[in-house]
Known about the structure:
This protein is of the alpha+beta class. The protein has 5 helices and 26 strands.
Amino acid sequence: MISFDDAIGLLAKAVSPLGTETVTLADAADRFLAAPLVARANAPRRAVSSMDGYAVAADTTYPDRWIDVVCEARAGAPASRRLGPGEAARIFTGAALPDGADLVIMQEYADRQGERVRFRPGYGPDTHVRAAGSDFRVGDILVPAGTRLGPRAMVTAAAADRAHLDVYRRPTVAIIATGDELAEPGTSSDTPDTLPESASYGVAALCVRMGGVVVARMRGRDCLDELASLAARALEMADCVVVIGGASVGDRDFARPMFAKTATELAFAGVAIKPGKPVWLGKAKGSLILGLPGNPTSAMVTARLFLQPALTRLQGGDPATDLAFQAMPLAQALPATGPRETFVRASAGPHGLQPVGNQESGAQAPLLAADWLIRCPPGQPAMQTGHHAAALTF
Length: 394
């Protein structure tokens, strides 16, 4: 078996971004940019007011002196004329400054009578003017390629006056759950000796959250011919095939043999982690194949550690962003680690991370409370309460 870090390094080498496509701005949310987002216009395009008040020429305006209000400026409705010396324009936030003006005096300092206004002392020194191009200018790169377009980035893209964006294609994913004991949820209680198949639902939800498109979710018995047929179908329809179960070395573990009829390049098979030792990664017919353990908790932990960064990489993002471990305090002591790197499921509380009850790989109820993974290197001594450990959101 290889270490977790070595496995992640091999994953980064094995996975390449998919092709690109052009989409409308409305369809670009959560997509990864394939090209830098460049501004098409200055922002603001002209000098604008940042306050409601009066636009004037600073060098011809003085406190307590009446001047004429000759026009009005609103956002989207600029002033109708240029200001002359000793003239003012009523102006509102976001409106373009009239030609001849370089100062906005807030309305709180103004005394208005009909079409005349005067200003009380103390209105300076701030001009309350946003200069043209002070936010960004034409040609500025506002969002680099590889960025996922979250809510804030979408605001920036729209402000850049971009109606269409070049993004990486969303990866299609086919999920195959294996095991004679598995039954569709809702039927297991009436079928002796079966368990509800649960892991594929969690894996599918992770794929959707990460931008993947789940095109198939299949279940196969521990029969090599049946699984080989499912594997062939999955490779034809998906950029990424996820196999759950059958990853060990028993007589009825067919996760890797089911791909034997295709030329499969194996990146790694077996990682020295707990849970999730049997996880494996390969490629066949241009598709990525990720094998996850059959126990639902192990499947979800390894999906978080390997599938999530793989999906990010397929979409042109940086997989390291998905593995940004943080130093977090422990609310409870942890025992010494054995020869494998251990990922402890934990929840965050007021005093730090608290391991969730049952850490067995087959325990599914504690998954709901586990929103962090505590990384415990192999051979690490016991960690006491208050110790800061490396942790990853789960």
